[in-house]
Amino acid sequence: MGAQAPGLASPLRSIQKPPSQSAVSAPRCRSQPRTVLRQQYSSSIPLTAASAVLTRSSPSHPSGRGGCRDAVVAASSAAASFDASADELDSLPSIAAADAIETGEAHGNATFTQAVLNVINIVTGVGLLSVPFALRRAGWAGLGILWLMGFVMNYTGKALGECHKVVTKKRQREGSNGTALVGYEDIGAEAFGAPGRAVVATSMYIELMGTCALLFILEGDNLFQLLGPRFAPNSATYMLLAAMVMIPTVWLPDLKTLSGLGMVGVAATLTVTAAVAYTLISGSFPVGAVTSAANWTSMPLVFGILAFVYSGHGVFPSVRASMQQPEDFPKVLNVAYATVAGLCTFIGATGYYMYGTAAKDLITFNLPAGLLATLCASVILVNPIAKLAITMDPVGVAANTWAASAIQGVPAGVRRFVVRTLLACACLAAARYVPFLAYFMSLIGSFLTIAVSVVLPISLHLKIFQGKLSKQRLAWNWLVIAIGVACALSGTTASVKALLASTASA
């Protein structure tokens, strides 16, 4: 991308144009209860949507055998549901209008499979393991919310992809930065000018940098939970040791390379899923769990928490720009979201069925002690390592663009290395020294994550496709915005209460 595009696009090594296109010109409080920290972490992190690790408590006895079969049926119908959505989107007048700007589109070198792995790595991870806890709060009705939010997030991702396509082709047609890749904030600028760019960039960068800081916290806490004080006295020291492995991942050259980390993260998630399935099949869980159809009093909080399982839209323009065939991006989202929805449904329904009201913050904490539980705890360590680089990528691209214009005479490779290392170290320092960082970021994340993943994509879509949308599509867009606002308000309210309570007790 070089220094031409301030935005989200991946720093791909080679950007190719179709042959037919002509050339165009204070320390973190260690006494925080881990349960509270988990709840705040799970409602603020778009990429992991789970928690910093908590102290174990003994499991209670589960009950009810109904939900697992429904979960498997729901998971098997995921692809058909999302494919129907894609066909409907592709047939709408707005898409035909977008295709009128057909001058060819610059593309990257990532394959369809690599793009799918990147999206799955973005929107799933440890957050998947907290779905049984969410169902504990919502009851079986939470599965309906899980699928509703999956559909909404899939739609908003496609809407953002449509905007990315139109803005990219428009800039190439007009000859302005024809080789530059279009990022999320560039779409904001196209829709609403400089204010649009500022709102999108501020919301996204704060969210992503906060997420990176919390990934360091999560890794340190997970290591301390697994290894105890035998190698380091506390989770903060483990966090510093983990940073020696995590920070080098931000030096990888592009999203095609990062897809390798994505595969590792997906493999870790599948390992835990297999462990949960084995526990169910072998009957190695207490019988008699207490479950409920719906818990209406805590439903608004769960509505917000489950939305974060699917978020990560700030990186989607980078993923689309990195693809060899960007027009396949809706299909990438279909496959990725169907996979994530199926896994979340299975883990959520199985965990809630086995443990009910005793479901812990992470389902792995409910598994019987022994080799299986240790294996699951170990593979969970992979997720923060796999996610750090891809989470920081949009911020790194923007910072590198600024550095290229502000600092002359520095080789591009050296500049990129220094910029990304400094950003990673800043996140590490925030994780280590900012008081109540997790609570503070949950407050910001509850509002900004929904804004970045739901409200802003649809707002940009409404503006860019103004006058070209059918009445049905227009009504659906406004309904999605209303859902996003409801999630943001409920999550923000809960985060404010937790932050005030933690501050008062410190």
From TrEMBL:
<feature type="transmembrane region" description="Helical">
    <location>
        <begin position="332"/>
        <end position="355"/>
    </location>
</feature>
<feature type="transmembrane region" description="Helical">
    <location>
        <begin position="260"/>
        <end position="281"/>
    </location>
</feature>
<protein>
    <recommendedName>
        <fullName>Amino acid transporter transmembrane domain-containing protein</fullName>
    </recommendedName>
</protein>
<feature type="transmembrane region" description="Helical">
    <location>
        <begin position="237"/>
        <end position="253"/>
    </location>
</feature>
<feature type="transmembrane region" description="Helical">
    <location>
        <begin position="115"/>
        <end position="135"/>
    </location>
</feature>
<feature type="transmembrane region" description="Helical">
    <location>
        <begin position="440"/>
        <end position="462"/>
    </location>
</feature>
<feature type="transmembrane region" description="Helical">
    <location>
        <begin position="367"/>
        <end position="386"/>
    </location>
</feature>
<feature type="transmembrane region" description="Helical">
    <location>
        <begin position="293"/>
        <end position="311"/>
    </location>
</feature>
<dbReference type="Pfam" id="PF01490">
    <property type="entry name" value="Aa_trans"/>
</dbReference>
<keyword id="KW-1133">Transmembrane helix</keyword>
<dbReference type="InterPro" id="IPR013057">
    <property type="entry name" value="AA_transpt_TM"/>
</dbReference>
<keyword id="KW-0472">Membrane</keyword>
<feature type="domain" description="Amino acid transporter transmembrane">
    <location>
        <begin position="109"/>
        <end position="495"/>
    </location>
</feature>
<dbReference type="GO" id="GO:0005774">
    <property type="term" value="C:vacuolar membrane"/>
</dbReference>
<keyword id="KW-0813">Transport</keyword>
<feature type="transmembrane region" description="Helical">
    <location>
        <begin position="198"/>
        <end position="217"/>
    </location>
</feature>
<dbReference type="GO" id="GO:0015179">
    <property type="term" value="F:L-amino acid transmembrane transporter activity"/>
</dbReference>
<keyword id="KW-0812">Transmembrane</keyword>
<feature type="transmembrane region" description="Helical">
    <location>
        <begin position="417"/>
        <end position="434"/>
    </location>
</feature>
<comment type="similarity">
    <text>Belongs to the amino acid/polyamine transporter 2 family. Amino acid/auxin permease (AAAP) (TC 2.A.18.5) subfamily.</text>
</comment>
<keyword id="KW-0029">Amino-acid transport</keyword>
<feature type="region of interest" description="Disordered">
    <location>
        <begin position="1"/>
        <end position="37"/>
    </location>
</feature>
<feature type="transmembrane region" description="Helical">
    <location>
        <begin position="474"/>
        <end position="496"/>
    </location>
</feature>
<feature type="transmembrane region" description="Helical">
    <location>
        <begin position="141"/>
        <end position="161"/>
    </location>
</feature>
